[in-house]
């Protein structure tokens, strides 16, 4: 019989087996910090500049991915256009790709949810129409007016949901996604 060899742990290269983590800062808190003349806007902090460029690269990559460009092409072009390093550019492309995939998943879920809402709204419209018929039979003007308003509102809801469902089905059939908003302006 052959003897089994025991699995030995490979050493990490340190004799003592203890690793050290050195804490650092991305940008120093004490200014004047280095501000790129090419990329910064006036007295903008370097971290704000980096985040603005990253978010811009993400939006740009999102639109290019929809146009059919590959990840590698976008990685190279993004570095030149936005002046960020390879890792940041690649992360922006991956984040944009994740947004597209999640929107496609959400499209299916939202269409199913809208179908459920539409069925419920049609049922409630039927109930409102029955209430209107009963009010007309009783010839009660106050109830007739109230029931007419209810029927009008229910019909508007059914129409709105039907339009939304058609729009979602059109996106699904065309293989596209709804418009994506990457943020807005703050009202400070």
Helix and strand arrangement:
Elements: H1 46-67, H2 71-82, H3 86-138, H4 141-174
Helix pairs in contact: 1-2, 1-3, 2-3, 3-4
Helix content: 55-70%
Q: Helices and strands, in N-to-C order?
A: HHHH
The fraction of residues assigned to DSSP E strands is under 5%
- Approximate shape: elongated
Q: Note poorly predicted spans.
A: none
Whole-number radius of gyration? 30 Å
Query: Major sheet: size, sense and barrel closure?
Result: none
Structural class: mainly alpha
Count every helix, treating DSSP H or I runs of 4 or more residues as helices: 4
Short description:
The protein has 188 residues and is mainly alpha-helical.
Features:
single chain; 188 residues; mainly alpha; 64% helix
Structure in words:
With 188 residues, the protein is mainly α. It has a domain at 46-174. The protein has helices spanning 46-67, 71-82, 86-138, 141-174. The mean pLDDT is 85.
């Amino acid at each position: 019989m052959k003897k089994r060899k025991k699995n030995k742990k490979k050493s990490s290269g340190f004799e003592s087996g203890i690793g050290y983590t050195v804490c650092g800062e991305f940008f120093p808190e004490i200014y004047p910090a280095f501000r790129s003349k090419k990329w910064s806007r006036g007295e903008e902090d370097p971290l704000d500049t980096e985040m603005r460029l990253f978010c811009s690269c993400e939006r740009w990559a999102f639109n290019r991915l929809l146009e059919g460009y590959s990840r590698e092409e976008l990685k190279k072009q993004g570095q030149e256009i936005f002046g960020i390093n390879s890792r940041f550019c690649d992360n922006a492309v991956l984040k944009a790709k994740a947004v597209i995939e999640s929107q496609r998943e959400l499209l299916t879920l939202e269409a199913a949810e809208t179908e459920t809402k539409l069925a419920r709204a049609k049922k409630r419209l039927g109930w409102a129409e029955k209430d209107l018929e009963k009010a007309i039979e009783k010839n009660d003007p106050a109830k007739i007016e109230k029931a007419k308003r209810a029927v009008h509102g229910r019909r508007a809801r059914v129409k709105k949901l039907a339009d939304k469902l058609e729009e979602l089905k059109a996106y699904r059939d065309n293989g596209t996604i709804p418009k994506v908003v990457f943020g807005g302006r703050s009202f400070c």
